[in-house]
Amino acid sequence: MQLYPLEVQRLHRTTANSICIELERPASLREQFRFVPGQFVTLKLNIDGKELQRSYSISSSPDQFGSLQLTVKEVPGGEASRWLCRKLRTGARLQVSSPMGGFTPPPSRATSRHYYLFAAGSGISPLLSVIRTVLQREPGSRLFLLYGSRDQRQIIQLDQLTELEQRYGSRLVISHSLSQPISNPLSRVLKRCRRWQGLRGRIDMQAVMNFMRRNSPGGVESCYMICGPDEMMNNCRRALLSLGAEPAEILSEHFIPGMGNGNDSGQAANLALKLDGRQLRLEVKPNESLLDAALRDQVDVPYSCQSGACGCCRARLLNGEVERGDLSALQQEQISRGEILLCQCWAASPQLSIEVESEPG
């Protein structure tokens, strides 16, 4: 995976535990950092001598020339997010991959669609890029966002969302739902903590169905995009399907990976790995994922989250059998073609042959 040094031009704190990082997008790297809304990049960080790779969605529009914005939320136990939110300074250079990912609709001036967007927490990041781009490029389209947060102080990019809503009027309709709205009378003097008058509760099936009834497509071509925790995304998908949405119309991004990605039954195997035209032979140990086997042998395969959420470590199984974990980052047609995620597969036969995508996207 090719990485490029990009300078941090600006840092903007969006909540107490999240930050917007604005990176330089120089003209000399215009092609390398050409992207479509909804994509992400991978950062390679060296923190106290430990190398970490993490994926973060782009929150800016492709039409914002000269810069690339990432929104990062600090998560408990997250070494990379904690360092980025607390230690990163303007002027620093980060090692950044080219944009990747398929969580994106094809914007076009010729289309007039309704976009129904569902986000929770930091899942707003890729959808903010979609919102900005569609508003600019599709004057006949409208967007409807249902956004879940814990409380008023945790609404990421609230100022940006409010400004876009005011600028574009009825073309952008935003409904916030808070699971734990602040009700302390002493806190109402704060701008974000006035008595909450909006929706309450997590985004469950009923919340989605109520939201759709208030904002009915009315026969207009629709696109549905979901980004957040697994339970929230499953609720959204089930509700949309029950209301008649077609499965192909629903796009989802596993922004917050599920737990339990380990495996205690993978067997030892000999792995023939094709990467960038090279043929490599590796040994896979019992209970070891294919990604861990490659990294143990210092093979430079693409990867990032190591939990099946980002899809960076996509590969194609040519021969042999594997035990599969969470492949939800792949589309069904990709799985049908034999594509797998190295971090989510363990050997189930003594001989394996795979081909690694050098630049997944």
What layout of secondary structure does this protein have?
Elements: E1 3-15, E2 18-24, E3 40-47, E4 50-57, E5 67-73, H1 79-86, E6 93-97, E7 114-120, H2 124-137, E8 142-149, H3 158-168, E9 172-178, E10 199-200, H4 205-214, E11 222-229, H5 230-242, E12 250-256, E13 269-275, E14 278-284, H6 290-296, E15 314-319, E16 322-324, H7 332-336, E17 339-341, E18 345-347, E19 351-356
Parallel strand pairs: 7-8, 7-11, 8-9, 9-10, 11-12, 13-19
Antiparallel strand pairs: 1-2, 1-6, 2-5, 3-4, 3-6, 13-14, 15-17, 15-19, 16-18
Helix pairs in contact: 4-5
What would your notes on this structure say?
Strand 3 and strand 4 (50-57) form a beta hairpin. The termini are close together. The protein is globular, with a radius of gyration of 21 Å. It has seven helices and 19 strands. The chain has helices spanning 79-86, 124-137, 158-168, 205-214, 230-242, 290-296, 332-336; strands at 3-15, 18-24, 40-47, 50-57, 67-73, 93-97, 114-120, 142-149, 172-178, 199-200, 222-229, 250-256, 269-275, 278-284, 314-319, 322-324, 339-341, 345-347, 351-356. The chain folds into three domains: 3-97, Elongation Factor Tu (Ef-tu), domain 3, CATH 2.40.30; 114-256, Nucleotide-binding domain of ferredoxin-NADP reductase (FNR) module (Rossmann fold); 269-356, Ubiquitin-like (UB roll). With 361 residues, it is of the alpha/beta class. The strands form four sheets. It has a six-stranded antiparallel β-sheet with strand order 4-3-6-1-2-5, with helices on one face. A six-stranded parallel β-sheet has the order 10-9-8-7-11-12, sandwiched between helices.
